[in-house]
User: What shape does this take?
Amino acid sequence: MTPPIIPQASGPVFLDDDRINLYYLNELYADIARCVSLQLKENHQIEVPITSGIWGGTYLIADSEGKSKRRIWRLYFIANLPQGSPLEKHENMEHLVGYYYTSIINAFRPYGLELDLNMWGGRLPYSNQVKPSLTMHMVDSSKKVNWLRGFFIWNLVPWEESIIHDAIRNVKEFREKFSIKKKPIMKRDPKDIKYLLQDVVITYRTLESSFSSDFLEHAHPIIDEIVDHFLKGLFDPVLIRDFFFRVRDNKLIVGFEETLQEYYSKDDLNVRRVEDWPIDKINYVPEPLKEKLIPPIKNLFTSFKSNLDKRNKLL
Assistant: This one.
């Protein structure tokens, strides 16, 4: 049996001040997927390609070299698995989880993290009813981060496409979380609202190139103000709640949803019912939406790499 492989990025993921380089983190997630695929092939003769990268879009709020502007306490990745593969067999899926578990531990231990599996196999909210996306949750006893959480999606596509597609599910979650009928605002932990606002900012930035000029003019000042406060340190519960209502009352979530629906309606797909889509539409992104949204993501990471290469040459 092939011994455990240590996944690596081309540079340090955690920096001296405990901030994270998101370019290298994205590389590390991709290499973890590569190592898992390799071990499945060499130990079980199972050939399963996997694509993976950062989930959550923290790279959209980073400096020119991909360094996070504030400390990140919650790590997320997304991994895309092929349909109709040997992973459909429960035993093989257990192998994959085992290799992911050891690969993640080996990848992050050099940075002082002591990760251990807390939960595996949970269902990601609003994922496909027939082939739901699965979750993995690991906690860090070193307290360098709070947790690392992974989402496993049943359709093999490039990482960038899976991030765009998952924005639909995020928007559906926003609809529920911005409803004050289910849970009044004063009964919510301001920290949870703060993370919700961060997700709104990231979804906006992910979809930004697809928005109409009118919506951009309407939403951009609100998003910019939230980001400015995040970077300074957003801790005031009153201000956090105020931003919650500004996002809600200015119908930013409605704007996200209407933009996505405009692109998906040509395929007769209802973004409000994404969990009911046929399984071949898991991770599906229409070509016109790809053309608008994938180049900005790729260009951002190319820019990170270019700037890192320039700095490394000077060292």
User: Anything to note?
Assistant: The helical segments are 22-44, 90-108, 159-177, 190-207, 213-232, 237-249, 252-264, 287-314.
